[in-house]
Amino acid sequence: MKPMKLSRRFALKGLGVSLAMPFLDAMRPHRGVLQAAETAPPRRWVMWHFPTGYRESTWRVAGGDGERDWQPSPALEPLQEHGVKEHVSVVQGLRAPYADGSGASHTCGISAQLSGLLCRQRVAENLRTIDQGIADEIRGDTPIHSLQLGTNVLVENPNDESGYSSTIKDHLSWKDSQTPLPKQTDPAAVFQRLFGDVVGDVDQDSLAFARRQRLRRSILDNVVREASSLSERLGKADQQKVEQYLDNVRSIEKSIQVEPRNNDSGMCDAQGRVGSFFAPDDIETHVRQMNELMVLALRCDVTRVIVFQYENTVTTIRHPFVGVDQPYHLGVAHHSQDEKKLDDYYRVNRWLVSQYAEFLAALRDVEEADGSTLLDNSAVIMTSELGDGSAHSHENLPCLIGGSAGGRLRVGGNHAFPAEQFMRLLLTSARAVGAPIDGWGEDYELTARPRKKISGVLPDLLV
Description:
Elements: E1 11-14, E2 17-20, H1 35-39, E3 44-49, H2 56-59, H3 77-81, E4 88-92, H4 105-113, H5 130-138, E5 147-150, E6 174-176, E7 179-180, H6 187-195, H7 202-214, H8 224-232, H9 236-255, H10 283-299, E8 305-309, H11 328-333, H12 339-364, E9 378-383, E10 399-402, E11 414-416, H13 422-432, E12 439-440, E13 454-455
Parallel strand pairs: 3-8, 3-9, 4-11, 5-8
Antiparallel strand pairs: 1-2, 4-10, 6-7, 9-10, 12-13
């Protein structure tokens, strides 16, 4: 039988389902001068954000100048435990002068993280954020421009930081100056958005999801016949890839909480709209599911840009599974040098690094068309809007960057950039993934008016 050829955009179709596929040998172009270029994996960009800073002394790594033989600090030991240390660079000394607001460090830290704009009082406005600029450049023909995901939505109105909008306190991504991009916190809804037949249409996706739930059907039940037919026409290697991929999708789907808020007899509320679904009760499961969904989205090239936001900047979440049963913002991050609170701060920091490391390890385990890995072709930044949470500082922000962006980022090093602007790291990562962005935000270190954009990169991080 003649080998089957598939488009990179091939998807298994069924009722309310469009299941994108990972790269298969059958998707490789015929031999020719363009083969290498056409099979080069796309580059991806991810921000893995956590709130309210860190305990610097347990995170700080000795050495500098790009040294590769650095030993993990206590908070960063999970990088070694998950086997991804060599894929991660530690970046120290970065600051965000554009985040300094008058008594509004949380609000201005979040609003400026990706925009580089000093937040203003009494307006729910911001600059378009750099993740959107990166997505414009590297999206290609992916169905979803960018994903905004998280585990919690801030419900604080009015803002406790008086005079500032609550809107700019909980949105990292902005489509334009007037349009914040809310994060999706429900794994079931994210799953449906990734694999629903009407990508991006929340109402239609939810209706399709509800129909399947009433019938107790898996998303894969709707494409099983097409999947079987496809497998018969593929080579053995591709058959194994498809089988492993579908098993992975089914495993993730089974792990997601899908029970509606309403009773089992109906999925709709009084207005006839589909009800919301519960997110997992425990945060460990919630983060794991979001990590798995992000890997699926990137693996299948549904999107190439993701911003994930763990909780919110004033979260009250508790972490008893690491021995911390105090509300995180006021009971832990506001440590005032209390040793017990500082130890709790470290424990949560370490757990967050372990979740980031698990995400990187999952990317590392996905092989691309050219034999490289999904992690090799990504730039994954872990950071926070604050340095020290008790001081509400925007100096020396915690920052890790994983993946080499297709060989364009140096990995495995410890880099010190005293007093450099955080935005320059974002510009560096943008260039590495193929987004030639020269500047973003406003440079408050310049006195000339109107202010110019923050420009320049951190050359030591680039190959």
